[in-house]
Amino acid sequence: MHGTIERVDGGRAHAPASQLILAVAREWPEPRISLGEMIAAFGLRSYGLLIVLFALPNLLPVYIPGLSPIFGIPLGIVCLQLALGYPTPRLPAFLTRRSLRRADLEMIAAKAQPWLHRIERFVRPRPSFLTGRRMERAIGAYGALLALIVIVPLPLTNGPPSLACAVMAIGVMEQDSLTIAAGMLLGVFAAALGLSIIGTVWWLLVLALSWLFGLGA
């Protein structure tokens, strides 16, 4: 199994993120793959690929209840570790043991390809202060904040912040300042949208509870 991981990762070390993730999904030798095994499979490009990978399920064209926390929590952990300057990402054991069917991972990767291809088509190396180590840690902190919105299991609170994290991660991997800046701007919009939805749902919930309490009185 580990030999296959090395061939998938090492043989495509400079391939776009979309190709690497789909390759792992299609070539994995077992019927299920754990989050820990995914981390091992992407060891050479570490943080960027993991952020993209954990963002992918929330880029699906349909909303799947309960999916956002499963991938949003490790997304936030990886972004936080990037912000703290950890040399390599690592997840707690209770998360690394979680697994999904290889077929499901392939479906997620395949359906997310259009999103990734649109991003990767415009990506090229454009280094600046945005691609420096200090800014990389700031991007990690920004991604961790966006992941808090991703975790909330409501429609439209998952996709936009996940996409912003994926765009920034691809920009970091390819040293592309323009892509990083685009991801940061998208994150502002995503945060505003997500927080407005969360606030509206919270207000409606409080209103409903107040109505029920008043009705009961």
Summarize the structure in short.
By secondary structure, this protein is mainly alpha-helical. The chain is built from 10 helices and 2 strands.
Provide the descriptors you would attach to this structure in a database record:
single chain, 217 residues, mainly alpha, two-stranded antiparallel sheet, 10 helices, 3% strand
Number of domains: 1
Strand order of the largest sheet: 1-2
Number of DSSP helical runs: 10
Question: How many strand units?
Answer: 2
Element-level helix/strand string: HHEHHHHEHHHH
What is the secondary structure topology, with strand pairs?
Layout: H1 2-10, H2 17-27, E1 32-34, H3 35-41, H4 46-55, H5 67-84, H6 93-96, E2 99-101, H7 102-120, H8 133-151, H9 159-173, H10 177-216
Antiparallel strand pairs: 1-2
What does the model show?
It contains 10 helices and 2 strands; from the N terminus they run H-H-E-H-H-H-H-E-H-H-H-H. The chain has 217 residues and is mostly helical. The chain has one domain. The protein has a two-stranded antiparallel sheet. Helix 4 (46-55) runs antiparallel to helix 9 (159-173) and helix 8 runs parallel beside helix 10 (177-216). The protein is globular.
